[in-house]
Amino acid sequence: MSKSKIRTSARFLTDRMAYELDLTPRQYDDFYEINYDFLYEANLVMDDVMRGYRDAIYYYYELLDRRNEDASYVLNYYQYSRFMDADYFYRPIFNAGGRWNLRIYVTYSNHKFYYYDAPRHYKTYRGEHGRRYYSKGYYSGRYKKQDRYTGRMRISGSRDFGRSLKNDFGVNVRDRGRDNRYNNYSNPNQSNRTQDERYRDVSGNRYSPEINNRNNGTRPNGNVNSNRGNSRQPQTSPQTSTRTGRGNRTESTTSSRRNDSSTRTESTTPSRRNDSSTRTESTTPSRKNDNGTCTESTRNSGGTVTRTGRR
Question: What is the pTM of this model?
Answer without folding.
Answer: 0.60
